[in-house]
Design a protein that fits this description.
Layout: E1 8-17, E2 29-38, H1 43-60, E3 66-71, H2 78-91, H3 98-106, H4 120-124, H5 135-151, E4 155-157, E5 169-176, E6 187-191, H6 195-198, E7 206-212, H7 213-222, E8 235-240, H8 242-257, E9 262-264, H9 271-280, E10 285-290, H10 291-296, E11 298-303, E12 309-313, H11 314-325
Parallel strand pairs: 3-4, 8-9, 8-10
Antiparallel strand pairs: 1-2, 2-7, 3-5, 5-6, 6-7, 10-11, 11-12
Helix pairs in contact: 1-5
Bound molecules: zinc ion (ZN) (2 copies).
One zinc ion binds near residues 76, 77, 133 and 134.
Length: about 325
Amino acid sequence: MHMLPKPVKLFSMGPIFRFERPQAGRFRQHTQFNVEAFGEQDSAMDVEVMSIAWQLYAELGFRGLRFQLNSTGCPQCRPAYIETLKAYYQTRRQEICGDCKRRLDRNALRLLDCKSPGCQPVIAAAPVISRHLCPSCHDHFHHLTGYLDQLGRPYEINHKLVRGLDYYTKTVFEVWAQGIGSQNAMCGGGRYDGLIEQLGGEPTPGIGFGSGIERIILSMKEQGLQPEPLPEPRVLVIHFGAKAKARAVELVFALRNEKIPALMSFGEKSFKAQMRDANRMKAACVLILGDSEVEQGLISIKDLRQGEQIQVTEAEMVAKVKSLLS
Ligand SMILES: [Zn+2]
Ligand SMILES: [Zn+2]
């Protein structure tokens, strides 16, 4: 992959299995899709990846979308921040939960995403990483928020948004939607500039996000969002006789080649039954073919909205259908 022109843009989709206890909306097995870009550290790349998530949820109809945003620093600036955070937590050790006491020794960054109510006042007063970023991380974050401002994409800087693993760097984000709170972020993502190197590759920056499909469906149901209806076929090709049927098979593909959504009538049905099918599928027009028309190279077109019927040559057919549909 390192031979490909950068950035290398990837997506993946498949089943994911949870180790934690399943709960409402968090199944043992779920389906996740991931979007990633490797080889580019420019924060304009972050905006592109983040926008894919944004655009998807916007097109699905979610309202009140906003990013939750933070920087998790880098190996240059993060260790000093973690020391500051630990020193602060030592002064409040009596107030924090048992999990946080363990995190304090093992994975201090995760102190910030503790959900225990007793820990919330301690988190609220904790030192924030955004004031401890090195110039490179600071600039990256500054440009990123500048691009989001330009695009009018709302975001909140969320100091609690962190990742516990060393290979995560700089940008961390989630997308939240109206009525869907922090427990149910639509997606989570960020930078992992240290990942490829940790896996044994050349140092290669990366950014991406993952989103659970069942989570999206559940949220759509909660919000009463319907998926967009599939495009309806606009033209039904109806036919009488063996020659006409063979020609109908060709015509339906000729129409599709012209990006006209078309279907042919299957089996041998009466004219009335085929017209009923056309009305049921709300076709705009029908093409009518009989054996004698095929011999003459003619096609009848019936406009179902105006009720008019005309006869055209095969050469005129596509243009006529297009004008009827426009
Ligand atoms: Zn840094
Ligand atoms: Zn805690």
